[in-house]
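SEVERITY: medium
COMPONENT: batch folding queue
REPORTER: lab tech (J.R.)

DESCRIPTION
The queue accepted two submissions in a row. Attaching both inputs and their returned structure tokens so the on-call engineer can compare them side by side.

ATTACHMENT 1
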Amino acid sequence: MWDFDIGRTLGIMARTWPFIALRLIVYFAITLAYILATGTGAGVGYGLGRIWDDPGMFALFGGFIGFGLVSAVLYWLREYILYLVKAGHVAVIVHLVEGREVPEGRGQIDYATSLVRARFAEASVLFVVDQLIKGVLRVVTGLIGGIANALPIPGLQAAAGFANSVIRISLTYVDEIILGYNIREGSDDPFDGARRGLVLYAQNGGRMVKNAVWLALFMWLIALVIFLLMLGPAAAVLYLMPGALAGWSFALAIVFAWAIKAALLEPFAIAALMQVYFRTIEGQSPDPDWDRKLSDASRHFRELKDRAASAFGGRPAGQTP
């Protein structure tokens, strides 16, 4: 079974309600942008299509273009969403997991923003660290699950491949856990903090992945239910739009479900995993063997180490001149 406390996790979420509200605003604003862009694109396409006597097809392509434009804008804004919303929420969750007091109301967001700025001066630094962590986590999955793949047991390779796929899905929120470790430790260099956090995660990979898999199963089951519930409202919205856009109800239902998942379910998973991670690594130091394994297997991990060393004037982090 899992090692996190569901009641305590819900309590932490309740105490971070300013960030929950902020996430709801941000992610439903994104959903509204998709609806408006899709509808506007469909309307323009429908109007142009009447000229060529095929308004339905033009409306479909117009909706697709509007949907794609919003996706492109969000792709370029993703590092600022990470910096302003996700990282601040992680910082508050870290303090609550540690039993510290945090401000209530609007002051909580200001407080969290100051914590993030203390560790990551610019959004671009946090974004680079986050992307490097994601790259290393793909390798961690292989190192943890690779033993089963190598065993010459008939049928085991297929089972191991399925298990590795589940593990990869379950690692969605681990980059936020490593970010939380960085904030908790108050490292002078976020790259070295991420390196140490990843080594600690890898050396406790079995326990961490077990809990991450449980959470992933919960999250995707709930997200599926939300998606099915959202099909009706999404179809109703598209019914009011011009042209043959019924197929877009499926896409918009996914967007609705994603917004709820990002606003409400992700913080739950992060708070739950953070409890397990901090409790597991208590009193531990990064294992040099795992540091070496990750260095050999991941260029992203080597880049983390190189950036940490360059931040200390070419010395390995933590080494005195």
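ATTACHMENT 2
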Amino acid sequence: MHAWERRGAQAWLLRPVAALFGLLAAARRLAYARGWRRTDRLPVPVIVVGNVIAGGAGKTPVVIALVRHLQARGLPVGVISRGHGRRTRDGRAVAADSDPRDVGDEPLLIHRATGAPLVVDADRAAAGRRLLALHPEVRVIVADDGLQHLALGRDIDICVFDDRGIGNGWLLPAGPLREPWPRRCDLVLHTGERPAFAGHRGHRRLADVALDREGRKVPLASLAARDDLAAVAGIARPERFFDMLRARGLRLRTCIALPDHHDFSGWTPPPGLQLLCTEKDAAKLWPVAPTALAVPLQFDIDPAFFAALDARLSSLDGFQAA
């Protein structure tokens, strides 16, 4: 919301509601801090990747990069997630052939991209216990989102920000913040090009190839001469995807922005156009638009971030890297 970028009239009108939201959130944090509400701790280290700002800040690519880093270190790692936007309510393991409507599009993308075992459940601690029961070899769990899910004990908090920073600095609904900032956080990671404050950096770019439904690669450069391209995105900030495609020299006849986690069931693609979509949308889009091409996002994180993460992980009591 553009209203969240500044402290305009609309934001000021919503300040009383934001104050109430802040009081309720503070009471909830106090209840966990005092032990009035239970925090479940899992028997392995838990790394939570999340954001304090509403809307997408590039969290999913961070989770993928983090899991791949831990795997490269030889650590058996698993992932837990709420599975936002799914139509089911039970806890369940994610498989490569899972229906994204049942497990969530982001968990399915993470699992397919990393091969790491992944369990979705609104109760993150229950998800962790199920994951460890199915995969007792797992030694580190990465929680996709959940900074505000205080019922789950965690060992490392990673806060992700994009170029919006903290917006106007006010709580929902007067501003974009889910909780006051600054808050305790082990690592801050910026996914945008203009960090608003100190932290580590990550750099997003589109892959050099698009993928069809069968996994075949189509060089992105080979699409530059075409004038029949249409881009569709059901993500938090679809304009970022469209801008990145244009930056690669692609001429987009039309751009279709849909709500985050959009369910493409019954959606009718525009006739006579070659669709380009995000990897997140692809699994739901291909059944109704089988010729669509998915353009993967590559995310490179500064080595200093991983060095700091490894040091923090190694400092945990009882944890051994090998």
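NOTES FROM REPORTER
DSSP finds nine helices and 15 strands in the chain.
No errors were logged for either attachment.
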